[in-house]
Amino acid sequence: MSLFSDDDSKVMQFTPFTFEPPPIDYSQFEGVSSFPSSTQFYEESANSETFLKENVLTKGKGRQAEGYEPNIKTQKQIMYLNPPLVYDLDYWSNSNQGTGVKFHPTRSEDFTCYVFGKEPIEKVKKEGYTLDTRVYNCSLANDIDSRRVFYNETFSIFREASRATSSKEWREKSSREKLLCDISWSYVNAIVKHIKILQENPNKDEHIQRELNTFRDMMAIWELCRIMYFIKSERYQRLSTDLVTWLNECYPMGALTEEELNEVRESPNLRNTVVFWSRLYKLILRGLFPQAINFLRSILIPVESDKYINREIVINDIIQSVIKCIKSRPKISSHDTDLAWRNWLSQCSQVQKSIILENKFLEESFVKILKILAGDPDAILSKSSSWLEGLIALIYHKYPRCDSSDIKAILGPIFVRFSVYPDATSQVLKRIFYQRIDEALGYCKYIDSWLLSHLLDLLCKVDLDEIIGGKSFRERCLINFAEPLLTHSTLWQIGFKYLEHCEKYGKVYIEEFIGKVPFDNERKFEKILKICEDNGLIFDEKCITTAMGTKYMQIKRYGSTMIYYMRAGKDENLKTICNMFLTQYVETGKITFEEVIDSIPVDKDSNESVNFLSRYRLYHSLIQDEFFHQAAQVLVECLRSEISPKEFWGVLLFHTVPLMKHGRRKEVKLFEKIHIDEFEHYCTRVLDRKIEDSWIKLVQRMKRWHYKECGYFNISEDLKPVKNECERYKKFLSKLKR
Amino acid sequence: MSVQHFDSLHDDLIHDVAYDFYGKRLVTCSSDQKLKVWEMSPDTNNWEQIDSWKAHECSVLKVVWAHPEFGQVIASCSFDRSIRIWEEQEHEPKNSGKRWFEKARLVDSRGSVQDVEFAPNFWGLRLASIAADGVLRIYEALEVSNLAHWTLMDEVNVHLSRNSNTTTLKEAEGNYCLSWCPSRYQSPMIVIVLDGHQDLIHDVAWAPNMGRSYHLIATASKDHRVRIYKLLDNKDGFAIELISDLNHNTEVWKVKWNVTGTILSSAGDDGKVRLWKASNKIESEGFKCMGIVCNDRQSSDTMET
């Protein structure tokens, strides 16, 4: 059996980093390898799997790729239960077999498949089919086990975010932004931490690789949302640096290919090497200036020979001038940016004009670098290898002070030149730049339910809930995310906590799922009940408690069974158990419920049957300890309260006989006259026709041991021994009175 | 996506598989007249057999678990016209053939019993059955601790209430199915057959409600269609509307809902299971095919909707 997934794996290299808030500190790039490891965004790296995902029809520069519409049709999955088997097309319709399915009762994306017989064997002729009695357990859901730590951590952040909205800081706009950024930051940190865990995992199987790609995508999207939506104040002058940092961290430059490396190694003069310049353009485009300066310095040639002295000096001078231009680029955050920026552009322009070299390749290369620095759109876009790189380089170099709302206008020329790959992540990023967050979120669901639910939750907190489909969309996404957690062995509580944050449908889901959490121990059981209690699910609480009681009943732990049935208010069930014990007494004359009843906390409010059993047990222990007076009192109480089963009244009346006899013999007044009258009254009621049959059966069973085995008085269905003794006792009482 | 399998080792065709309430146990029934109970082992993460026994005198057609508040109880129905109630005996060793004790045998049907289903637990320990004699019978264990005694609470002759078309009637004798309404906020309801199909219905399933203001019922039909009906409760009863008419391309034998009523599966005569996912706006956008489970690798017809 094998599984064929049409899932596209997204390969994006990850560079471990700490995402420092902008503006960029250039020193962090010092000493960084000149040849970063990722191939993702390095030139037209055909090796990258991202390229393989590109739709052939929409490929090509100069055309904007049609938006990838991840509709249900393209997402359809095919699962083969038995890939090696190939039956003929009519096999299934001609044979008495079909493939059946049953969904898992607690996991919405798990099901069981089996080959079923359409008709019973008695109704069909014997046929030569291949009997398949296998049962296939299928799951469409992703394994969440490897995400346990991540989910635990991010739930704490989610909870903090929920609490934040009611805090004092939230009411003030400035501190709200800080709070939001802190929350967002915590989420990103959790993502980065998880990426590191995945990277450190020695097992590099397909699942881990897929998880890595998903988490990298989630990080890129989350951070871009933070930059575009969560930071509002002081946006001016910060966006371009934020974005270039984001690009370099989330989509670092690719490493040179082996071929390119060879070209560099074998080149007698780097100045004339295409690969060298391509690399340098990238560094400039991406604002990686310290590295670019290192690159430029590497082609400074010490002048030793007179022959080339003039030419080399000129080139070295140009290099130094370009380096000077790069170094003097104004910091975007400075106050006098406008003036400084104009001065610097004019400096670049002068240097550019002064470059006249015999070597036209070199001359063009230097000019190109200066043009990129000066924000020339043609130069920037011609040297960018993706729409993302082109867009951010354009923002960084041409519109360094733009605002997030200006980006839409910049996107036009980008999509004239570049295609957007049809994968969901690219579509999300594109829409975020277009400020169509509603559409972006629509694509997020194809990336990961965690991302969608948590990002949506945070976006709802920045008053975007109307744009993104209202609070019900947030709720739906949270429920979708939480649902697989509900039946996870360790994450189930978190799952229910998420549902508690869904005002409209959360309770319905809690109600549906809480009873389905299997409880293997009492600790877990109590936790489940606590959730019911917190959410006012009285009925479910009772069902779960009853199920627990029944579980103990099955293993004959009656004490625990009764405790849980009492909690659940299952009077009928309790009555059945109590009757079972009384029947055992009637059958054998043995009190088998002593330990059981001693382990149950019984008070006057307890269930009637349990209360009677407890009183009855007390009666027997008093008799055993020869406290006849107290025993007589308990017996009278038991009869008077009428809490015992009616059939058992006769048994209680039989118990009065030895006590009356004992009283007479010892001349002790154990019963009053009124008690004797009551005994006679109960005798009449027991002999009432309505209970006659059951009463006769009971006496017959009791007779077996009462007289023959134990040598007690001979009991009879007509209660004659009781009546006779009552007469005698009355005489005794009148004698005593005299 | 993942697939794992185990061999039930039945000697004949399986007719039904049922999960217990928590999804930790499975029971299978077969034309070999046996029931087999399986349990997911947390140690090996495999389904392990708990017991296997001859349960009926003929093919066992359906099997269901009762809610755990009534204990570990199974009901099975068979071509032998009986329904049998089984209760687990914890003290009996596993795979002894005695672990499941026959507590009751209900033999009121005059034809093979084709479907049984326990009512949702909030209606007590009730069992609905429908047999080839066209009679719906509802039993109840009035004393839940006494599984030996089941009272026949209701008998409804479905056969008579059907369309008077004699051909349909004749065929229908062999094909009855039922499904309880899972909602606790409605009075007990059960669905047996729905109008609207051009041909015979093989299966019917009532969707979990999950806070929706309406009910959904799906049917599997011989005319290749999977139909989903919406039931809206109003003052005069239910307004019934066909909201999805899905094409399975071949005769459809079974339909089942997932726990949230968001995915419907249909099993057809092509050996395939189609999974239909509800869109966010069910009423306007309906259900769309989200996946296909193929039992074998057939040469064509794998990607159609």
Automatic annotation (TrEMBL), chain A:
<keyword id="KW-0813">Transport</keyword>
<protein>
    <recommendedName>
        <fullName>Nuclear pore complex protein Nup85</fullName>
    </recommendedName>
</protein>
<keyword id="KW-0539">Nucleus</keyword>
<dbReference type="GO" id="GO:0017056">
    <property type="term" value="F:structural constituent of nuclear pore"/>
</dbReference>
<comment type="subunit">
    <text>Component of the nuclear pore complex (NPC).</text>
</comment>
<dbReference type="Pfam" id="PF07575">
    <property type="entry name" value="Nucleopor_Nup85"/>
</dbReference>
<dbReference type="GO" id="GO:0045893">
    <property type="term" value="P:positive regulation of DNA-templated transcription"/>
</dbReference>
<dbReference type="InterPro" id="IPR011502">
    <property type="entry name" value="Nucleoporin_Nup85"/>
</dbReference>
<dbReference type="GO" id="GO:0006606">
    <property type="term" value="P:protein import into nucleus"/>
</dbReference>
<comment type="similarity">
    <text>Belongs to the nucleoporin Nup85 family.</text>
</comment>
<dbReference type="GO" id="GO:0031080">
    <property type="term" value="C:nuclear pore outer ring"/>
</dbReference>
<comment type="function">
    <text>Functions as a component of the nuclear pore complex (NPC).</text>
</comment>
<dbReference type="GO" id="GO:0006406">
    <property type="term" value="P:mRNA export from nucleus"/>
</dbReference>
<keyword id="KW-0811">Translocation</keyword>
<keyword id="KW-0653">Protein transport</keyword>
<keyword id="KW-0509">mRNA transport</keyword>
<keyword id="KW-0472">Membrane</keyword>
<dbReference type="GO" id="GO:0031965">
    <property type="term" value="C:nuclear membrane"/>
</dbReference>
<keyword id="KW-0906">Nuclear pore complex</keyword>
Automatic annotation (TrEMBL), chain B:
<keyword id="KW-0677">Repeat</keyword>
<keyword id="KW-0539">Nucleus</keyword>
<feature type="repeat" description="WD">
    <location>
        <begin position="53"/>
        <end position="96"/>
    </location>
</feature>
<feature type="repeat" description="WD">
    <location>
        <begin position="245"/>
        <end position="280"/>
    </location>
</feature>
<dbReference type="InterPro" id="IPR015943">
    <property type="entry name" value="WD40/YVTN_repeat-like_dom_sf"/>
</dbReference>
<keyword id="KW-0813">Transport</keyword>
<dbReference type="GO" id="GO:0034198">
    <property type="term" value="P:cellular response to amino acid starvation"/>
</dbReference>
<dbReference type="GO" id="GO:0015031">
    <property type="term" value="P:protein transport"/>
</dbReference>
<dbReference type="InterPro" id="IPR020472">
    <property type="entry name" value="WD40_PAC1"/>
</dbReference>
<dbReference type="GO" id="GO:0035859">
    <property type="term" value="C:Seh1-associated complex"/>
</dbReference>
<dbReference type="InterPro" id="IPR036322">
    <property type="entry name" value="WD40_repeat_dom_sf"/>
</dbReference>
<keyword id="KW-0853">WD repeat</keyword>
<keyword id="KW-0653">Protein transport</keyword>
<dbReference type="GO" id="GO:0031080">
    <property type="term" value="C:nuclear pore outer ring"/>
</dbReference>
<keyword id="KW-0811">Translocation</keyword>
<dbReference type="Pfam" id="PF00400">
    <property type="entry name" value="WD40"/>
</dbReference>
<dbReference type="InterPro" id="IPR001680">
    <property type="entry name" value="WD40_rpt"/>
</dbReference>
<dbReference type="GO" id="GO:1904263">
    <property type="term" value="P:positive regulation of TORC1 signaling"/>
</dbReference>
<dbReference type="InterPro" id="IPR037363">
    <property type="entry name" value="Sec13/Seh1_fam"/>
</dbReference>
<comment type="similarity">
    <text>Belongs to the WD repeat SEC13 family.</text>
</comment>
<dbReference type="GO" id="GO:0005198">
    <property type="term" value="F:structural molecule activity"/>
</dbReference>
<keyword id="KW-0906">Nuclear pore complex</keyword>
